[in-house]
Amino acid sequence: MIIVLHRTSDGLWPLVLRLLPIRERRKHVDQNAEALPRRVQPPHGEVILEAKNVTRRFGGLTANNNMSLQVKAGEIVALIGPNGAGKSTMFNQLSGVDTPTSGAVLFRGKPVTGLSSRTIAALGMSRTFQHVKLLPRMSVLENVAIGAHRRGVKGVLSAAWRLDRKEEARLLREAALQIERVGLNEHLHAEAGSLALGQQRILEIARALCSDPCLLLLDEPAAGLRLKEKQALAELLKRLRSEGMAVLIVEHDMDFVMNLVDHVVVMEFGEKIAEGLPEAVQNDPVVLEAYLGGV
Ligand code: ADP
Ligand code: MG
């Protein structure tokens, strides 16, 4: 046992693989696979996400208090605020990861409060989390393809008997398309864990795009990125916006937000303290107070 723990901390299978003439086969992208159906995107400027008086309490702590906000198609909205303001909690209420104590969330005009996150994702809302969640030993292509799994119809049994090859080819082709869309083409077959942090974040966006969303929720996608990586991310988000995508982004970095977004919502202690155009919010004394502790 001690030798195994010392020599092959990943278990015995990698050892066996090295001894046997089994090659790990790369997933192949079949350019002729039938494209997946796309959803009809909402018209530019239509309100697609609306939170009405959302409140979430954890015992005695009110993480979100009476929060209301709107996101329109083809618009980037930023949710900003100091650490612990309740931004991630708000994202969880919007995306069905958590259920509000009171209040309502409407997505494309339909109430989605209390629906599961899978159901909401199927309606066209896709999100990333504050911390990168990847399968580091699998390729970029495979990681991104996971985001398309809801668009497949075959179940576990047909997968076990490999009766789902046509469908797999369609999902992989969709993944390859989204990887190209975000500009990670040259890393298609690289291990996801070998990418730089900035590229991993972009990979996560590609995975989110695989569910064919009309709204992306991104929780601090620029955190920990270098300047060049931030610029690449901002370019990508602008490109998605020009294609009609709506984006709601949680962000810490004021400079990053101000040059990118159309509308800003500022939170502190679980409440909305200001909202409006980036320039107006930036000079709002209430916001400066929250960020800098007064001027
Ligand atoms: P932000 O993302 O703005 O930094 P969060 O939404 O993560 O802030 O957290 C807001 C507050 O809610 C914090 O005080 C946090 O400790 C609390 N909180 C978040 N999730 C939970 C939970 N599941 N249970 C209890 N408290 C929570
Ligand atoms: Mg957070």
Write the layout of secondary structure elements.
Layout: H1 2-7, H2 13-19, E1 47-58, E2 61-72, E3 76-80, H3 87-95, E4 102-107, E5 110-111, H4 117-123, E6 125-127, H5 140-146, H6 156-160, H7 165-182, H8 197-209, E7 215-219, H9 227-242, E8 246-251, H10 254-258, E9 263-268, E10 271-276, H11 278-282, H12 285-292
Parallel strand pairs: 3-8, 3-9, 6-7, 7-8
Antiparallel strand pairs: 1-2, 1-4, 4-5, 9-10
Provide an overview of this structure.
The protein has 295 residues and is α/β, with parallel strands linked by helices. It is 36% helix and 21% strand. It has helices spanning 2-7, 13-19, 87-95, 117-123, 140-146, 156-160, 165-182, 197-209, 227-242, 254-258, 278-282, 285-292; strands spanning 47-58, 61-72, 76-80, 102-107, 110-111, 125-127, 215-219, 246-251, 263-268, 271-276. The protein has a 6-stranded mixed β-sheet, sandwiched between helices. Helix 7 (165-182) packs across helix 8 (197-209). The longest helix is centred in the middle third of the chain and has 18 residues, at 165-182. The protein is globular and about 70 Å long. The relative contact order is 0.16. The mean pLDDT is 89. Magnesium ion is lined by residues 87-88, 130.
